[in-house]
Design goal:
This protein folds into three domains: 2-196, NAD(P)-binding Rossmann-like Domain (Rossmann fold, 3-Layer(aba) Sandwich); 206-283, N-(1-d-carboxylethyl)-l-norvaline Dehydrogenase, domain 2, CATH 1.10.1040.10; 292-427, Rossmann fold, CATH 3.40.50.720. Helix content is 44%, strand content 14%. It has helices spanning 10-22, 33-40, 51-60, 96-106, 125-136, 156-161, 173-182, 184-188, 198-229, 233-241, 262-275, 281-304, 333-342, 355-361, 371-375, 388-391, 395-401, 416-421, and strands at 2-6, 25-29, 64-67, 77-80, 113-117, 142-146, 166-169, 193-196, 313-317, 346-350, 366-367, 380-383, 406-409, 425-427. The protein has a six-stranded parallel β-sheet with strand order 3-2-1-4-5-6, sandwiched between helices. It has a six-stranded parallel β-sheet with strand order 11-10-9-12-13-14. Strands 7-8 form a two-stranded parallel sheet. The longest helix has 32 residues, at 198-229. It is elongated, with a radius of gyration of 24 Å.
């Protein structure tokens, strides 16, 4: 099959490379000429494990190419994978880029084409894309489909190549056949294929992300309860997660969710639902609780340091919203670090991949070259992102270089008893404090 991917950002580039890996001929399109030039030189503009090799292999095989031109004329399917950020002022998803892509490709397609929304979009977007194409080019032969992505940053290739399911909203036999042919390699390994209508596919994406965000927020509130009554949230999470009706995933307490999906998708779902008089009150509460939690984490650090961090050096481990990505969008560090600075702390931070992006968003902080350098002469060390390499740090070495051996572990990557046994003042999330 011949596939055009409009948008070469995270979703577009990963999806395009994976479709090429399936054996399809793929062209990734982007108006950012610098990005396309970098891709032609083999430079990947985002950090995603394994993506550089997959792109290189498929470019070499002649199945993957990049261009700034709207090269969709011969495509069997055109995927729209442009950004849908939160619109300023009202919380809705900004569909400007989606609708602009639809208008531009209307005159560029030739012959029958399936136009697929891959971007995360509110219900009703697919119908509007079809209207725009039909109005722009009445003679265009096309169908619109919805094919939401369910990619986790840091594990996107595995998620695409071995997904739990593929959801496809499509309403003609011809379009269904095209989409089935595109995903044939997954069908051969018996991946569940959920064929439904366009609106259902659009709602499914938002419902999935909202449910996962709710699980995170739920266990974070349970963690607060555990801290006050002497319970251990990890044992609670295990105790409820082993129930097959609940499941163990997304029951890890921390400083709140961030990233490119959950914050904007929960907002968009809440606003869309209110417009059609079907308010999602649980989701609205999740948004409020999560926003408040990120702000409270700075207070947690300050309280642990005796009520003031004025004049103290705080080492920070991890800045990105999660490990295995350089994505800083809505990362908890963007709330925690400025609040600590406002309280008078000096920040020295280390992140394995995110410091270039963090430097654009966080000012007046010192970036360390290693985790141990971030801990050097620190009065306290705060773990914000649970990078795997942090789990392997030598606590004794950390203690040797710190001015005061205090750790505030917002991801619970260390063992409390071990750390306290080594002489650290240690505070986790949702874990029992030592009895006095």
């Amino acid at each position: 099959m011949r596939i055009a991917m409009i948008g070469s950002g995270y979703v577009g580039l990963v999806s395009g490379a994976c479709f090429a890996q399936f054996g399809h001929d793929v062209v990734c399109i982007d108006k950012d000429s610098e990005k396309i030039a970098r891709l032609h030189k083999g430079e990947i503009p985002i950090y995603e494990p394994g993506l550089d090799k997959m792109v290189a292999d498929n470019v070499k095989a002649g199945r993957l190419d990049f261009t700034t031109s709207l090269a969709v004329a011969d495509a069997d399917a055109v995927f729209i994978a442009v950004g849908t950020p939160t619109r300023r002022g009202d919380g809705h998803a900004d569909l400007t880029y989606v609708y602009a892509a639809a208008a531009e490709l209307a005159n560029a397609i030739s012959g029958y084409t399936v136009v697929v929304t891959k971007s995360t979009v509110p219900v009703g977007t697919g119908r509007e894309v079809a209207r725009i194409i039909r109005e722009t080019q009445p003679s265009a032969q096309f169908d619109v489909a919805s094919n939401p992505e369910f990619l986790r940053e840091g594990a996107a290739i595995e998620d695409f190549m071995k997904p739990d399911r593929v959801v496809i909203g499509v309403e003609s036999t011809r379009a269904r056949e095209v989409m089935a042919a595109i995903y044939r390699p997954l069908n051969l390994i018996q991946t569940p294929m959920v064929f439904t209508n366009i609106e259902t596919a659009e709602v499914t994406k938002y419902a999935g992300n909202a449910f996962l965000a709710t699980k995170i927020t739920f266990i974070n509130e349970i963690a607060d309860l555990c801290e006050r009554v002497g319970a251990d949230v990890h044992d609670v999470a295990r105790g409820i997660g082993l129930d097959g009706r609940i499941g163990r995933k997304f029951l890890h307490p921390g400083p709140g969710f961030g990233g490119s999906c959950f914050p904007k998708d929960t907002l968009a779902l809440a606003y869309t639902a209110r417009e059609v008089n079907a308010p999602q009150t649980i989701v609205e509460q999740v948004i409020e609780v999560n926003n408040g939690r990120k702000k409270r984490m700075a207070r947690k650090v300050i309280d642990f340091c005796g009520g003031s961090v004025a004049g103290l050096t705080i080492g920070v481990l991890g800045l990105t919203f999660k490990p295995n990505t350089d994505d800083m969008r809505d990362a908890p560090s963007l709330d925690i670090v400025p609040a600590l600075q406002a309280a008078g702390a000096k920040i020295v931070a280390f992140d394995p991949e995110g410091m270039t992006e963090a430097a654009k968003l966080l000012k007046n902080i010192t970036f360390a070259k290693t985790a141990y350098e971030a801990a050097f002469e620190a009065d306290a060390l705060v773990v914000i992102t649970e990078w795997h390499e942090f789990r392997g740090l030598d606590p004794r070495r950390i203690k040797q270089v710190m001015r005061q051996p205090r750790i505030i572990d917002l991801r619970n990557i260390f063992n409390p008893e071990e750390m306290r046994g080594l002489g650290f003042a240690y505070e986790g999330v949702g874990r029992p404090r030592p009895r006095t």
